Amino acid sequence: MNQLLKSMFSAITVRFISIWAKLRLLTSPLWWRTKGFNTLRTFFAKLFNVKPRNKKDYYTILGWMVSKKLAFAVTIIVGVLSVYYILAFSPLALKGAGPDGGNLPAYKYNSIPLKFAKGDVRIKAGSGYIAYIGKVEKGQVKGQGKLYGKDGNLIYEGDFDKNMYNGTGRLYYDTGGLKYEGGFADNIYQGLGKQYRAAGSLEYDGEFLYGERNGRGMLYNASGAQIYEGVFQTGHILYSELIGKNTSAVADMYTGLQNVYSFENDYCVEMREINAVYAVDGGQDTLEADWVIKNVLVLEDSVYMGNKSLNQINQLTEYLGTPDYYGETWVNLAEAVTINLIDNKSITGTVEMDKTAVFDNVFNVNDYDMDFGVYIFAYRIDGLLYTFYCTGSSAQNFFMYAITSD
Question: Under a CB-based contact definition with an 8 Å cutoff, are residues 185 and 166 in contact?
């Protein structure tokens, strides 16, 4: 009896071990890889064994004899590559993969299906992050949408057309603060808009043209207070606009910090927040005893003319022609005040000035160094005299300029 039981147990054990070995083999990744590789190798060996044996193994195409096996092999290869391409670039349901989450379909930026998509989608950048969430049409970003950076920071939100900012939108700094809001045309500022500093305060509110401040606008200081309202041209204040206006009109335009200086019959006003000083004629003989702006000095070492910025005397001469006057001169009150506002004193030095404060921002100048010399180049442009101030006759760079009614 014991012998019989031992025989039965041995038979069952051998059978079980055989089944267990087969199960282990079937669950082995190496076995499946080997079997799959051998199967594919056998398949492709037969597939590429394209040597025809008789006429029936050919297709006749436009007089050419094409092996049927070769045509079949090419068809299989093209089919496999097509399926791979479609799967690789098809829309993916990436729930929660974008900055806004959601279940919108996501496309790679260069996918074929994106060319036919319409409506709200997400678009992946080349490195894999979600770069855009919004509307598309006929393969292009068009309509409302949001553009994101690789770190998930919002770059732009608003209207798109032809894959560019077109319409109204908001542009952001990398830190997340608002940089600009208003009109766009082909990715540049156009129309009405507002510019903000990186710290968050409003800097400019007005018209833009081709990405530059151009037209009427308002300028604000770092505290958010309005300091100037007037005309801008290619990103710069049109200082010539002040010439000929009376002081009341200019006081409405410039509302920033100012200091008033007087010496005998000369008067000037420092407009430090827009880098300028204006000089006036006394208005005692006018009906309203108002003063008229006759001269504006600008604390800038470049001037915008002819759609480009000029910062050297030879550039000015090339554009404007021979200067009407050039040579050394001695400073007047407004020139002395302006020179003393220059931060880099190593360029010009300081004009000695003895003054007495009448009020917090009003000064009587008792005396100043009238023998302080500068070298100037003067050009007439459209009824105005532009004077550029240098440190000497051989200097090519100017450190400030003045606009005077001619």
Answer: yes
Measured between alpha carbons, how far is 216 from 266 in angstroms, rounded to an integer?
31
Q: How does DSSP assign 60-74, residue by residue?
A: EETTEEEEHHHHHHH
Any long-range contacts for 349-354 (C-beta under 8 Å, 24+ apart)? none
Residue 201 to residue 222: CA distance in whole angstroms: 6
- For the chain, helix, strand, coil in percent to 5 are 25, 45, 30
SS3 (DSSP) at 97:
coil
Pick from 146-150, 212-216, 284-288, 370-374: least confident? 284-288
| Cα–Cα distance for residue pair 348/337, rounded to 1 Å | 12
> What is the mean pLDDT of the segment spanning 178-207?
98
Tens of pLDDT, residues 6-39 = 555 555 555 556 665 566 656 667 666 666 656 7
pLDDT at 267 over 90: yes
Task: Calculate the CA 351 to chain-centre distance.
Answer: 42
**pLDDT bracket for residue 287 (50, 70, 90):** very low
Reduced to 3 states (helix: H, G, I; strand: E, B; else coil), residue 152 is coil
Residue with tokens 């590559």: 81
CA 365: distance to chain centroid? 47
Per-residue tokens: 375? 């070298």
Q: What is the DSSP string of 240-252?
A: GGGTT-BHHHHHH
Supply the pTM of this predicted model: 0.74
Q: In which band, very low, low, confident or very high, does the pLDDT at 50 lie, cut at 50, 70 and 90?
A: low
**Nearest CA to 222 among 194, 258, 238, 198?**
198
Tell me if 132 sits within 8 A of 97, measured CB to CB: no
User: Pick from 155, 161, 131, 157: which is nearest to 143 by CA?
Assistant: 161
Ramachandran sector of residue 21 (left: φ over 0; alpha: ψ -120 to 50; beta: rest): alpha
Q: How many CA atoms lie within 13 A of 312 on its CB side?
A: 6
SS (H, E, C) 172-219: ECCCCCEEEEEEEECCEEEEEEEEECCCCCEEEEEEEECCEEEEEEEE
Q: What are 60-86's pLDDT values in tens digits?
A: 665 555 565 666 666 767 666 665 555
Query: CA 123 to CA 117: how far, in whole Å?
Result: 11
CB 200 within 8 A of CB 180: no
